[in-house]
Write a structure and sequence with these properties.
4-stranded antiparallel beta sheet, 6-stranded mixed beta sheet, alpha+beta
């Protein structure tokens, strides 16, 4: 290359960068509706944008505005959405003097930004799962019913809608008349903003749960797909420009790409391992450079010595460089530890290994990078620095990232340490989300909003506002009483007046504040208030939003206490540790819950079933008559494809990601008879050729030493053999420990063995092993908490049917007696827990819908007949009211495992089975809950398809006594 050619190339690159930055600045400026000037106590006059029109402010996801807000603040208004709920991680947007936010009940609200009153509402048929975008007089959003909407901002009338294949769980990006959104069907949709016409679609490798970002200078849209690739598309033509290499980690969910001023694309992934697994990287670095550091692990005297030694080393410039060099080298050697990537915007290639070690992860995403109005990139990173030394963790800092080299310049003043509020309040194992307002860097941490001045690098001595982290004794009850009485809540006590805040669960995915004009808009999150309030604050001299307010107090009247007992509250979740403040303050426990099992006066412990009645329940087998239809044919085709995938190869169990705590990942589909059960359920609805191949697959599993060898098979599959089920790569077990999900006992496994013999017509295995199997009737039942003994009851029914198959009258009689006892105990449970007892905690700190776990058609029929109304009530409260997004694979509920960002896949299967087998939901309703598979060879997906096929038929229970 000649010097002139090289110069031309450099000039071309420089021109592209200048053009990109110029376009982006003009675009951001054009999004401002008016310019308002503030003066007085804030020191100088600054223009203010009146809009925050999308997630992270704009379609490039900068997370910054030229508007500058400074304390003190007063509260303008607040809105509680306790009856509808807000999905975790959504951000209120502001445009045309309105605040737009969508609820889990499927309602889009346009709220007057000054008064907090509704301007209009727009109702959809599915939960609104993410942030909206406003542009060109319309507001764009997706919902759980799979639609993308364009609604007129002026009056809330619908402009258009586009139906996609699955739920839409991201924030659309709008640019130059085009709306870009990702679908959980794996497709990217480009829609004309004015007409709703679909310009183009393009398929990625799996579901899209990350919001798209746009580079306005290059007309490029960037989308991260759950196949762990980032895709770049030409906005107007839909051409795929590049696809990145597969990145480590398990999900982009909750993140979004961010476009830097030089066109780099910055992306973050949720790691495949616990936060604790990253600590050795930092501790090894400290050991090499410092030897040790002051922490809670040492005595005061030892910490004083270490602090002095550490600070002496920190004063040397080469010490900081050595830390970044070590981290960069370690991440390059072990790519599984990489979670933050800077990609070249033209090629998708990783530009360098960024020296950022994952932080937070208590409840999901790490803070996305921020691009300030003057073009700096702000990131959080981890290194031992003086500025954070006296905080909860010395390993969390903020700095400016050079997207050309990967170098990070510390942003905080390194000459001193910071006090608790005289900083950004960064906490290393909890959510901390950043945004920029002019020259102010703001951090949202659960119940506080803190900030520092980017010019002076001085933190404000008090937070911008406060909210509740964990209620103090009596506080929750006082707030609820105030809401019931129609009283205004004190500032900072805008607490969730609802039975539980399970939308997102626990301390959920935090979101930065939205800034427009002289105000900011905030959705606080904490241990029980999970994103169900929107609060608006305005700058005002003498404002007191930073001060602690006195919480309302007071006891409930008798009428209020009765009203609370009648409310649809999730008593099970409220009773868990750290969430039980309210229950402790109530006048007493609520009857029919886990806290107070009580048989209602109108109920008995259940019908006194005779031996003849028990024998009838055991002997009656279900037959289903299904008429062919296009819908049934389509379901069968999907089922055959899923079965084909399952038997195409040997699969490892699904390794499900860990959270912060418990730190173990989990294996699902680990039990061989679980695979047998799924195939046995599908067998009658697949073609003859595929049936033959399924029989061969089961035979291979049953060979000596195989997973199904022995009377009831092995306890688990060999986790080291077979293909990986997940779309993400699984880290080595020495990096991320893995535990098996609870497996069924041998009695429960009998059902799969019997069912396979029944549908295949081959009872050879049962005949061969009956001597051993017949003894299992003496095995003690499992703990009620695991599955309310659904699996045990089904296994006992199968035992009796096997005994009849073997003409073993003595064993059949023994089995009937045990079945009768098991039925009686289960009916007693049903009559005692009519307002609770649905969710159970299982090791280690996981929550499941135990009452509906391991349901079979026989167990479902039994519960439908004798406790159907109870289950209808429990479904209405624990699912439809509190968890309307339960059916979404890789959904956003986090309460199922304490400090983890994922719902367990078992939850969706448990609820689906209850809807089908106990409540007998109609076919059309069930079909809407199938959703996408969680992984390849998803056993739950197969079972859901079977249940949907059967819902199209007519079931009959016939006595097939054959002794």
């Amino acid at each position: 290359m000649t010097a002139k050619t090289r110069q031309d190339k450099d000039d071309s690159a420089a021109n592209r960068t200048a053009r990109r930055v110029g376009v982006r600045r003009r675009w951001m400026k054009a999004s401002c509706l008016t310019a308002v000037f503030l003066c007085g106590i804030w020191g100088h006059m600054l223009p203010a944008e009146d809009s925050w029109s999308s997630l992270a402010h704009d379609a490039a996801r900068s997370g910054a505005t030229s508007t500058e807000i400074r304390p003190p603040f007063e509260r303008k208004w607040y809105r509680l959405f306790g009856e509808e709920g807000l999905m975790a991680g959504i951000q209120p947007i502001v445009a045309e003097g309105k605040v737009f936010v969508g609820t889990m009940a499927g309602t889009l609200y346009a709220i007057d930004s000054d008064t907090g009153n509704d301007v209009w509402t727009f109702k959809t048929a599915g939960a609104i799962l993410h942030t909206c975008t406003a542009a060109q007089g319309k507001v764009f959003f997706g919902n759980a019913a799979g639609k993308i909407y364009g609604v007129n901002t002026g009056d809330g009338s619908i402009a258009w809608s586009v139906q996609t294949g699955q739920a839409v769980w991201n924030c659309p990006a709008a640019f130059e008349g085009v709306v870009i959104a990702g679908g959980r069907d794996g497709k990217v949709y480009a829609v004309e903003a004015k007409t709703g016409r679909v310009k183009w679609t393009s398929k990625t490798g799996y579901a899209i749960l990350s919001s798209p970002a746009i580079d306005p200078g290059e007309n490029m849209a960037y989308i991260a797909s759950e196949d762990m690739h980032v895709y770049a598309f030409d906005i107007h033509q839909g051409k795929l420009v590049w696809r990145s290499e597969k990145l480590p980690g398990v999900s982009f969910r909750g993140y979004h790409p961010v476009v830097s001023p030089d066109g780099s694309v910055m992306v973050t992934v949720t790691p495949a391992m616990s936060l604790d697994s990253f600590e050795p990287v930092l501790h090894d670095m400290v050991k090499e450079i410092f030897g040790d550091f002051a922490s809670w692990r040492h005595s005061k005297e030892e910490n004083d010595r270490l602090r002095e030694e550490n600070f002496e080393l920190m004063a040397k410039p080469e010490t900081y460089r050595a830390q970044l060099d070590y981290i960069r080298r370690r991440l390059a050697e072990q790519p599984a530890y990489q979670t933050f990537f800077v990609l070249d915007g033209r090629t998708g290639k990783q530009k360098f290994v960024t020296p950022i070690v994952y932080g937070e992860s208590m409840n999901g995403t790490q803070s996305a990078p921020i691009v300030t109005p003057d073009g700096n990139v702000v990131v959080k990173f981890r290194a031992l620095l003086r500025s954070r030394y006296q905080h909860y963790s010395p390993f969390l800092n903020v700095g400016y990232l050079d997207t050309a080299t990967g170098w990070i310049t510390p942003l905080l003043d390194e000459s001193r340490t910071y006090g608790w509020h005289d900083s950004l309040l960064l906490v290393h194992d909890e959510q901390c989300q950043l945004c920029v307002a002019g020259r102010v860097l703001i951090n949202t941490h659960q119940d506080n909003v803190n900030a520092i001045d980017l010019d002076t690098l001085t933190g404000y001595s008090q937070p911008f506002c406060r909210n509740i982290h964990e209620p103090q004794p009596g506080e929750a009850l006082g707030i609820i009483a105030a809401v019931m009485r129609g009283r205004e809540l004190p500032v900072g006590k805008e607490f969730l007046a609802r039975g539980t805040g399970v939308y997102g669960g626990g301390s959920v995915i935090d979101i930065p504040v939205s800034i427009a004009g002289d105000s900011f808009y905030y959705i606080p999150t904490h241990e029980i208030n999970c994103g169900a309030a929107v609060i608006a604050y305005r700058m005002k001299p003498g404002g007191h939003a930073h001060k602690e307010s006195k919480a309302p107090q007071g006891d409930l009247t008798e009428a209020e206490w009765k009203k609370i007992q009648a409310l649809p509250w999730d008593w099970d979740t409220l009773g868990t540790p750290r969430l039980n403040h309210l229950l402790k303050a109530l006048p007493g426990p609520v009857p029919g819950t886990l806290q107070m099992p009580e048989v209602r006066q109108s109920d008995s412990p259940g019908p006194n079933l005779t031996e003849a009645e028990i024998a009838k329940l055991v002997r009656e087998k279900r037959t289903i008559t299904i008429e062919d239809s296009p819908v049934v044919t389509s379901l069968k085709n999907r089922l055959e494809s899923a079965v084909e995938e399952l038997i195409s190869k040997q699969w490892r169990p699904l390794v499900f990601p860990s959270g912060k705590h418990p730190r173990e990942a989990y294996r699902f589909f680990a039990e061989p008879t679980e695979t047998l059960y799924a195939l046995a359920r599908a067998y009658s609805y697949i073609n003859t050729d595929l049936q033959g191949r399924v029989r061969g697959y089961i035979e291979n599993l049953s060979v000596p030493g195989g997973p199904l060898d022995g009377p009831t098979g092995k306890r688990t599959f060999d986790s080291s053999e077979g293909a990986v089920r997940s779309y993400y790569d699984v880290p080595d077990e020495h990096i991320s420990p893995i535990a098996d999900d609870i497996t069924r006992n041998d009695v429960a496994r009998l059902y799969a063995l019997w069912l396979w013999a029944e549908v295949s017509g081959d009872s050879t295995r049962i005949e061969r092993d009956w001597k051993d199997l017949s003894r299992l009737v003496e095995q003690q039942p499992n703990k009620m908490e695991e599955d309310c003994r659904n699996g045990y009851i089904a296994g006992l029914i199968a035992y009796c049917r096997m005994a009849e198959m073997m003409h073993d009258a003595e064993s059949f009689s023994k089995g009937l007696a045990v079945v009768r006892k098991a039925f009686s105990e289960r009916l007693e449970y049903e009559s005692e827990y009519w307002k609770g007892g649905v969710i159970a905690s299982v090791p280690v700190q996981r929550s499941i819908f135990a009452r509906w776990r391991h349901l079979t058609p026989e167990a479902g029929r039994f519960l439908s007949v004798y406790a159907g109304q109870t289950h209808e009530y429990l479904m209405d409260v624990y699912v439809d009211y509190h968890r309307p997004s339960w059916f979404l694979a890789w959904g956003v509920e986090t309460m199922w495992r304490n400090e983890s960002p994922f719902a367990l896949p078992t939850m969706a299967m448990e609820i689906f089975a209850a809807r089908s087998l106990i409540l007998n939901d109609p076919a059309e309703k069930l079909a809407g809950y199938i959703d996408i598979p969680w992984c390849k060879a998803d056993l739950f997906y197969i079972r859901k398809l079977v249940l949907c096929i059967e819902s199209h038929g007519k079931a009959a229970w016939n006595d097939t006594e054959n002794r």
